[in-house]
Amino acid sequence: MSSAYQVNQPSNNATPKQESITGVVERLTYHSEESGYTVARLQRSRVSELTTITGSFAGIQPGQTLQLNGFWREHPQYGLQFQVTNYKETKPATITGIEKYLGSGLIKGVGPVTAKRIVAHFGIETLDIIENQIDRLHEVNGIARKRITMIKKAWETQKAIKEVMVFLQSHGVSTIYAVKIYKNYGDKSIGIVTTNPYQLATDIYGIGFLTADKIARNLGVPTDSEFRYRAGITHIINDASEDGHCYLPQPELIEEVSKCLKTDDHQPMEEGIATIIKNMSLADELIRESSPDKTLLCYNPAFFNTENNLALLIAQRLRSPINPDMERVRTWLTRFTESRKVELSPQQQQAVEMAAYSRVLIVTGGPGTGKTFSVRTIVGLWKAMGKSIALAAPTGRAAQRLTEMTGLEAKTVHRLLEFDPKSMGFKRDMKNPLPQKAIIIDEASMLDLFLAYSLIKAISEDSQILVVGDDDQLPSVGPGKVLADLMNSGKVPVVRLTQIFRQAQTSAIIRSAHQINLGQYPNIEPISETPQSDCLWHGGGQQPEHGVQAISELITDFIPKLGFNPVADVQVLSPMTRGLVGTRNLNNVLQQLINPPNPQKLEVTRGGTVFRVGDRVIQLTNDYNREVFNGDVGFITKIDTEEQEVIVQYQERDVTYDYADLNELGLAWSVTIHKSQGSEYPVVIMPIYTQHYMLLSRNLIYTGLTRAKKLAIIVGSKKAIAMAVRSVNQKERYTQLRERLAQI
Ligand SMILES: Nc1ncnc2c1ncn2[C@@H]1O[C@H](COP(=O)(O)OP(=O)(O)OP(=O)(O)O)[C@@H](O)[C@H]1O
């Protein structure tokens, strides 16, 4: 089990004196899974002080015994460090080393306590015994047969992973991907990687074309091979869908592919790419459709079919009319409003009446325009008409809000459609439609192409659909802009609520949101000890570092003084992840402020992120097995170092993550505005700086602001806010749903 890894050479001009040191990794101060760059503390024998080592490492773990070659250097801030150029892992030679190694989280089923017990029994022989006579573990008190089997399996997996890892390391893949590759392909890993490295980009979450290409090139796949071109074309089309596009025009596709495939010794030719696109289209690997101006639009086939079918299904619904007795509907409505002593605005009245006779109806409007009020009335009407009703929203938070607002149970769309993790599909579909005859979908701006199609497929033809949303919000994270396309098609009936109700007008958050939407600089009150408004502005200096400072002070001082709880009530939203006022840095700063290290609180570090008991965390991908979805937010309530598990409490239930799956989680003290869609928080703090200029747009700041229910504080320069308000050039998404509907 000794393996050698090559580490990047330092870029110093003077040739430093190479030395060799050996020691046991005590802890990792910093480790990037992406680049492998690591700062760690090493315990050397006969040296009492810990030594700081830096360099690129693959799968470094506390407890590993390493033989390191490198050189000493004096870091201006951190003092003497050993910069590693290459290293070799050797078997731990000391009892403490073995104990640490075994208990470091390497093997599921062995945590620090069990490791101590095993090592206490077998001493220096421990690893040999695990390797060759694992059954002898039963000699150790408290290790039952079942656990031995588990440890045996984990040890073997670990060994196999190591083998795969060494292979992949030598082809430039980082440990985290090596583990994923192994999890996905098992013993076949090396075979698959060698035969078609581009397969990885298709099969493994987190491995993109670029990583696969790097591996392929290391393996000697020629840069002009058709293999590589096909993978590049698929990659660019898929990548475009990450930006929300459903297709790419061929000229843009060719340009992007050309950039992507270019290497120092290879310049792809446009005609070459065009030929392969054509071949792929003949083989149905992609679909090309001619637009009215004769541009070829290149689709991933799944996107093409879904867009088409969605349009067809909606058109089909629109063709079958409902003819209720409108006199009775109006009488009902009069009685309903009179008995509740309310009056509907003419637009709301229209929405309710149209809900009586429309198969598909969209109700839209900004905050405080009475969408929810209308929905409640429509629910009343539909109930009176004897319809069974289902309510849903794309996210858990939005569904919960809908429940609170309507008093009826609302589900996430996934739950409503009964997602089945085994088949990775929905149990509710055309053959097995939802039993309800009236379906209400809220926060519809978050519906992407695929979810919208799954939904409509599961709604029977004799049902009605009410779609509620605000198309000025950011579009869905997934591809498409379904709500906007439906609204702009001219085929689906739309009621746009524009009047802001008196109750809502008292809120500066709502007034400011509408101003932003109109392109006006919002009326936000400069922050003071005694704020008069619920929408405040903190100058926060011109520079992001002042912003970080300002946010810290708001969290520790200002917010608590106003009676809000920084842990439960406040959400810091940022336009981006990178930069000082990006979510990544803010999370570190806020974690330190709100949930600092504490001997009573266990923590685990993965991918450079410290997860600590008490941390607020966000799920970053859809995990159908655990039934937690992208954007779900919870709190870490427990870390089990023995089982190597982290327990996160979500609104409805606890969810357990293996350490290995922690890459699904991120800290959520700060989240991006994109991720906050569909959620609401009592207090929102939103840094807006010119450094974010690429991302600043009207609907971004509008979406962020409207997440706040009681207090919003924008931190940043007026210039940046003005930039955001002016910018409407949110990159258009390439979709044809509107055109398809309009044609029908
Ligand atoms: N017809 C009405 N008569 C009296 N009050 C109304 C009426 N319609 C809406 N309201 C009130 O106006 C406020 C905003 O309405 P509502 O919550 O329905 O808006 P919304 O569009 O759903 O806003 P948001 O998107 O922010 O949730 C609420 O306090 C609501 O009770």
UniProtKB/TrEMBL annotation:
Residues 1-20 are annotated as: Disordered. HAMAP family: RecD2. This is ATP-dependent RecD2 DNA helicase. One of its GO terms (cellular component) is exodeoxyribonuclease V complex. The keyword ATP-binding applies. It holds the Pfam family AAA_19. Residues 357-522 form the AAA+ ATPase domain. The lineage of its organism: Bacteria, Bacillati, Cyanobacteriota, Cyanophyceae, Nostocales. It catalyses: ATP + H2O = ADP + phosphate + H(+). Belongs to the RecD family. RecD2 subfamily. It comes from Brunnivagina elsteri CCALA 953. One of its GO terms (molecular function) is 5'-3' DNA helicase activity. GO terms for biological process: DNA recombination.
